Request: fold
Amino acid sequence: MDIRLTALHWVYLAFIVFILAILVRRRDTTLICVAGIFTLGLIATETLNGAVSGIFNSFIYATKELLGTIFIISIIVAMSRVLIITGINETMVRPLTRFLRTPAQAFWGIGFIMLVASLFFWPSPGVALIGAVLLPVAGRVGLPALGAAMAMNLFGHGIALSGDYIIQGAPKLTADAAGLPVSLVMEASVPLVIVMGAVTTVIAYWMMRRDQKKGTWRDGLVGKGGGGGLPAEALSGVIRSGAMLPTGLKRVVAVIIGLLFVADVGAMFAFKLQGGDATALIGGTAVLILIGVTMLAHRNRGLEETTSYLIEGFQFGFRVFGPVIPIAAFFYLGDAGFTAMFGEQALQGSNGIVNDLGVALANTVPMNGAVAAATLTATGAITGLDGSGFSGISLVGSIAHMFSLSVGGNATLTALGQVAAIWVGGGTLIPWALIPAAAICGVSPFELARRNLKPVLIGLVVTTVVAMFLI
Reply:
């Protein structure tokens, strides 16, 4: 199949390379993405008006595509906030602490609890939900604060977020960019997430115990307050000063919340809910829990406090996704977003910029599964260097789609790029993305990043090799 590449294709490709170069230097790519949208619009419409309007319209398009993800995260954060203020989160987690009696049990127990919490609440809210209760327990049994931070970080921001099987924010972004159903990307990611998680956490725990025995372990503490953050003891004080509920009522509410989310999971399997339908079910449940708990805790102030919690949640959501929107807007132009913005006349006879580049690549560049897998891992890791695992996964989805036209394995390549991007940028290696776990544990985010570096890099290598055999 012969594809005629035009100026639009080459400009789009040039901006992708430029964006990668900027990411390597750990600089923000928003301006470059806006410049790319403007340039593509100028070439496509041949009018200044069309190019300028295209910037705003592309932002609207990207926001519409991301709106469900932004909303679910915002609502989950709002619900998490009221659970923390009322102390219900402490009630939910306390029964699990009886099983944490040794450093090993504390490390793996905190990790798996964080994994489950992060699948439903996302890692940052999950850290706040369980950190205040589990960190003091870990300290009593001999697990240092940095070890607890590693466990929460690797299991939450690593394993849970890279799969994101419940909220489905990450697979939605990569699947859309790769032109695949969300369910296909999630299915392909399962073996990769398992391998990456197992290798990374086992090596991290082994290195921690080795250094403790050799006397070379550093706790990485930054003093009371966690360098400006809220360690567990301080957070507990905040909770006690909030709107508390009677102990018996907290227990009842905690059980009801658990049962509601278990029912959601059961409904997903029973009615085969995936993607937006599954997200809507979780989001609606979270809103009902938020309203119910707020009314119980604040009573006469319940109406106003419900709005306040929602505002806090949406502030968090848009703060997190604000940098993602212009980046996603640019990469959506590689597929259906282009014709939605500038019409079909500029790409007549084309299947989309990314598709055309993929076909051209397949026709001209020698490519095999090993090279494609290594490239996707490297690309995902590079896009994560800005500290936001989500800002680059649209790119890895597009590149996976291009390579798959030559070597196949679109879903596996897409999932591999997603795993690499989230593990590096989602909060396990970049210091400014590690702040939630570091702050709650009162340790240095730079020391936490240093401890994670070798385990994560080894895990990426092993996972890439496994992906080569799955393509």
User: Anything to note?
Assistant: The chain has a mean pLDDT of 81. The chain is about 75% helix and 0% strand.
